[in-house]
Amino acid sequence: MTQELFNLKLSILEGRYEDALTLVDELEGMSKQAILRNIESFLIRLIVHLIKNQIEEQLTNSWVASISDSILKIKKLNIKDNKVSYYIKSDEWQPFLEEAIEAAIAPTSVEVLNGQLTPIQLSERIDRNQIIMNAQSLLDLTYAYSAKELPAIVNKSLAELPGGQAWYKGT
User: Domain of life, per the record (predicted)?
Assistant: First the structure.
């Protein structure tokens, strides 16, 4: 990116405004890709814990903290600088979620059921549609609630997952 900024400055100083605008477009594209990569990493982290919840039918404080943090980070990353539009709109998550599930299977297999399942076994056991529905439901909250309200709302939503009531009540 340093080279691109140097070239941009040089283009402006030399009056090559078309070249400068092309470089600005390239820089914007690079920035968006970096943001999407960060969103995807938090999405995978979210999915890992939703898979663990589905297989083990429980929630732990650690999993809830990770899910909640992932949702908060996604909310902050997803909103553009203008504070009114998003990199990923609420109805555009499906392909991201499908990719995240596949990327999450191997790391989850190490953690779920004390590592007893291979990635292939885990892949065969999970209900992808349910995980996508749960993730989409949590992501939808990022469009409806402020960052301040979101943690409490996410906790209430997580209480509806398998084992969620026991976690929520502390039993």
Answer: Bacteria
